[in-house]
Amino acid sequence: MDLSRHYAETQDAQDSIGHFRSLFYIPDNELVYYDGNSLGRLPLATRERLREAIDREWGHDLIRGWDVWIDLARSAGDILAASVLHVAPGEVILSDSTSVNLYKLAAAALDARPGRRAIVIDDDNFPTDRYVLEGLAAARGLELRVVETDIDAGIDPARVAAALDDDVALVCLSHVAYRSGAIADMVAITTAAHRVGALTLWDLCHSAGAVRVPLRESGADLAVGCTYKYLNAGPGAPAFLYVRRDLQEALRQPIWGWFGRRDQFAMAAGYDPAESIDRYLVGTPPVLGGYAVIEGARITAEAGVDALAAKGQRLTEYTNQLAQEWLGPRLTLASPADPRRRGSHVTFRSPEAWQMCQALKAAGVIPDFRTPERLRIGLAPLYTRFVDVYDGMARLRDIVESDAHLSYPAELGRVT
Ligand SMILES: *Cc1c(COP(=O)(O)O)cnc(C)c1O
């Protein structure tokens, strides 16, 4: 392969969505950022929108701002539905965090399958997902069936199918694995779950804005996801949830807040849930975060998820090729080898991964370490260039060739 930097420059020059980088605030062009899958960059439009919202809407309009803010959760949800998730308006809404939405929808699903005593999850799901479902199972005395998943290859649909029977109420999994980036077969798994009458709940945190999510094609029932990763809505921005239209009124979520009530401002006695996705709301929405979601989703919509996914595959594959050429046996691919089978991040394995991670940060490259022994490289396609791949991997090559990373502690820090 062509190992020159010129090759990367040529790829950038031909990149049909390369100009989207200019829509982001990038104060340090030398910094190589491989963590857009954990916290996306700040869009310039968001900075402007938030300044305006703070000064004009909060500062000047004060409580009168609610005339506009009251519809924000829904309008942000509709933008995500149309441009990121490819489902209908009214099927997605912005609310709470991913963890809380997961709890709400999982509880709603369990209530909708009374008499069934089992929940199917896998042992490699993101920790918050596993804990939330453990907690629900414990509180209700349900059986948690934990399917074994290879941490690199991803979820095996046959293993999930083998855990299914007519006692299963809910199957809850991630679409794109947070560590390896492996994409789960949402169509096969949802079909198998539906065959036994179970509902499916998908975590889309590493999918939204990175890959096509086959919610429609699979007939998936429920989904949650965050907006601060590929959707660039900022730290702690509100999450989204999806409930398929025909299920919305059959399901009820367990936190009966006033924003979920029909005719909210009647302030009436008794909880009576709205007849729409609004019933999945709880309380006052985070307005500033909501604006950030709208601006971030707009950029994603403009680039188009298919173009983003295609570039993501090319970036992860280029990273993998450079890693193989330059770092050979000291760094091995841990993600699925077929770029179509992974999201927009790629993960490598080395017993020295944590030390490499620390040395890279000191050299102006920000990757992620994920236990065990995994170096995770996130390549958010909206603003990551091929030269970023080249420069970061070249710095890693130089570090490893000189063993510079071995001077960093091998013991893990508190935040990795
Ligand atoms: C990032 C991430 C989360 C985060 O959940 P929060 O409630 O926002 O902390 C959950 N699930 C997965 C799969 C993630 O990648």
TrEMBL record:
<comment type="pathway">
    <text>Amino-acid degradation; L-kynurenine degradation; L-alanine and anthranilate from L-kynurenine: step 1/1.</text>
</comment>
<keyword id="KW-0662">Pyridine nucleotide biosynthesis</keyword>
<dbReference type="InterPro" id="IPR015424">
    <property type="entry name" value="PyrdxlP-dep_Trfase"/>
</dbReference>
<dbReference type="InterPro" id="IPR015422">
    <property type="entry name" value="PyrdxlP-dep_Trfase_small"/>
</dbReference>
<protein>
    <recommendedName>
        <fullName>Kynureninase</fullName>
        <ecNumber>3.7.1.3</ecNumber>
    </recommendedName>
</protein>
<comment type="similarity">
    <text>Belongs to the kynureninase family.</text>
</comment>
<keyword id="KW-0032">Aminotransferase</keyword>
<comment type="subunit">
    <text>Homodimer.</text>
</comment>
<comment type="pathway">
    <text>Cofactor biosynthesis; NAD(+) biosynthesis; quinolinate from L-kynurenine: step 2/3.</text>
</comment>
<dbReference type="InterPro" id="IPR010111">
    <property type="entry name" value="Kynureninase"/>
</dbReference>
<dbReference type="GO" id="GO:0008483">
    <property type="term" value="F:transaminase activity"/>
</dbReference>
<keyword id="KW-0378">Hydrolase</keyword>
<keyword id="KW-0663">Pyridoxal phosphate</keyword>
<dbReference type="Pfam" id="PF22580">
    <property type="entry name" value="KYNU_C"/>
</dbReference>
<dbReference type="InterPro" id="IPR015421">
    <property type="entry name" value="PyrdxlP-dep_Trfase_major"/>
</dbReference>
<comment type="function">
    <text>Catalyzes the cleavage of L-kynurenine (L-Kyn) and L-3-hydroxykynurenine (L-3OHKyn) into anthranilic acid (AA) and 3-hydroxyanthranilic acid (3-OHAA), respectively.</text>
</comment>
<keyword id="KW-0808">Transferase</keyword>
